[in-house]
Design a protein that fits this description.
By secondary structure, this protein is mostly beta strands. 1% of the residues lie in helices and 41% in strands. It is built from one helix and 27 strands. It is globular, with a radius of gyration of 26 Å.
């Protein structure tokens, strides 16, 4: 019975009394997952979230919300400072608070920044989504199936320090867990089906910035790093009918040595880039290059802390109504902010095309 919660005898986890059960309200649907949160038991159901409190045999069940539900039990995990994070049919939510001392549980949407991504989820396979919190990275890793896939094929990572999300592709995560020290271990979601380049087994999500590796004659060769991408929104600069000519994109960055970035720019919702700039180095543009940490000889130079510097990148394109840029790199970078310099002669769109 999916609407009935059974509990065992105290200290005897494999023995259940004939009357050791609680009938849940029928409106919430069947139980999809259970999660212990402090001295409460959170009951996730098809159409609601309940909380069980009390001590044996006097248990009480209260409904927290009927607006949000979780059908992906493997996406539930506790995140410090946030609460219990889980995947619902329309995005990621957090459950925080309690029922002790007059406190109340509160459900908040946590995935506003990735709503376009979660809207692409394959609803029939949402239950295959998996997630885990990493103490080492202080990040919540969630992998979901999107765009009709029947297995998780995109990762959504929530970073506690930045309170923001990043997306991961190329990580075929079928199941995921963490070790005692917080390292993330996952199983391949295709296994041997993927062939020699994607073997079955267990893999580790690490900070090595390498897409795995290969073993040839007992020698392990690290593969190339993944490509990190930042893509801006479409800018109309206040009026999409006025034609603008963007001249510069200024990236405010913290210097991180000799890493390089590549910038592409787009106009008027065109899928192909109008132009691609040469690679720019994350170094002060108006002074000598900073010594790179971990490469300088001890005693011969002085390593400096990161500095906030502007990288002013010229953009060559004709007038446009909308503008967007995209930054790509295979290195570790820190982008703080950006500015867009443009000119406008006041030309406006005054009529549509004749049929």
């Amino acid at each position: 019975d999916a609407n009935r919660l059974y509990y065992s005898n105290p200290g005897l986890i494999d023995q259940f009394g004939a009357a050791n059960y609680i009938n849940l309200t029928s409106g919430g649907g069947g139980i999809t997952g259970l999660y212990a949160y402090y001295n409460n038991l959170v009951i996730f159901r098809e159409n609601a979230i309940d909380v069980l409190t009390g001590t044996y045999p006097n248990f009480t069940v209260q409904t927290v919300t009927k607006q949000v539900a979780c059908r992906a039990p493997n996406s539930i995990d506790s995140v410090p400072g946030v609460g219990v994070v889980f995947l619902a049919e329309d995005g990621v939510y957090s459950l925080s608070g309690g029922l002790d001392g007059g406190a109340v549980f509160e459900v908040k949407r946590l995935g506003n920044d990735i709503r376009k991504t979660t809207a692409r989820m394959t609803q029939e396979c949402v239950s295959r989504s998996v997630a885990k919190y990493s103490m080492e990275e202080r990040a919540y890793h969630l992998y979901v199936p999107v765009d009709g896939s029947d297995r998780p094929n995109i990762g959504c990572v929530y970073h506690i320090e930045k309170q923001g999300w990043s997306l991961r592709t190329g990580f075929p995560v079928g199941c995921i867990d963490r070790t005692y020290n917080g390292a993330m271990v996952f199983g391949h979601n295709e296994g041997a089906e993927a062939g020699a380049n994607s073997p079955a087994g267990l893999f580790v999500l690490s900070g090595a910035r390498a897409m795995g590796g290969t073993i040839v004659e007992d020698t392990y060769t690290v593969a190339g790093p993944p490509t990190s991408i930042y893509e801006s929104c479409w800018h109309d600069f206040g009026d999409s009918q006025v034609k603008k000519q963007v001249q510069y994109v200024t990236l405010w960055v913290q210097t991180t040595g000799t890493v390089t970035v590549n910038l592409k720019h787009y106009k008027d919702f065109e899928p192909e880039a109008v132009g691609t700039n040469e690679q720019y180095v994350y170094q002060p543009p108006d002074s000598a290059l900073q010594p790179v940490y971990d490469t300088a000889v001890v005693g011969s130079t002085q390593w400096q802390s990161p500095r906030l510097v502007p990288l002013r990148i010229p953009v060559a394109q004709q007038s446009c109504s909308w503008f967007k840029f995209r930054v790509e790199t295979t290195d570790d970078i820190l982008l703080v902010a950006y500015e867009l310099d443009f000119v406008s002669r006041g030309t406006r769109v005054v009529a549509g095309k004749l049929a």
